[in-house]
Amino acid sequence: MRIGVSGTHGTGKTTLVEALCARLPGHVVADEPYHLLEDEEYEFQYPPSPEDYRALMARSARSLCSPPSPSDTIFDRTPLDYLAYLVAAGADPSEEADHSPLSVAFTHLDLLVITVITAETERLLPATEWPGLRTRMNDALLELVYDDPLHAWTDTPVLELGGPLDGRVDLVLGAAAQLGRREPGTAYTGPSPG
């Protein structure tokens, strides 16, 4: 399985990715696009600028499409994250992203997992920087996921995790198992997000 985990900052993405990798034998975690660009000596602004988010979106799309990524990979963030940050900053998604590269990138994912802000994330997870941006990105991400204005990830199964934090790994594993059993060309109905 190739699983992408998207969500605004402070919703437990990295913790979920690590837990999934521990429970899925043979799976590896792909480096987050931010770290890949840092390794490539990209200089980020603080806070990140729209140009930074565009660079991250492009790097994330390349990461999803890169042959060195094994078939059993879990991605901490997808291009959708960075598009949502751009939209949260007031951008029009159709002006920020070309359909073709994103569409190709999402064909390389078997499952897109969305972590969202919930009462439990607010109570149990540490406070984060830029709370206004965090909330706007969360809302933009959900709108983008379900509306897909670019028609780029419509065929990628989506699992939104809105339930208890301690049940997330099992929900993702259940979705992965169901996807592994379904007949090609049939719709993914997915477990209840909680």
TrEMBL record:
Residues 3-121 form the NadR/Ttd14 AAA domain. Pfam families: AAA_28. InterPro entries: NadR/Ttd14_AAA_dom, P-loop_NTPase. This is AAA domain-containing protein. The lineage of its organism: Bacteria, Bacillati, Actinomycetota, Actinomycetes, Micromonosporales.
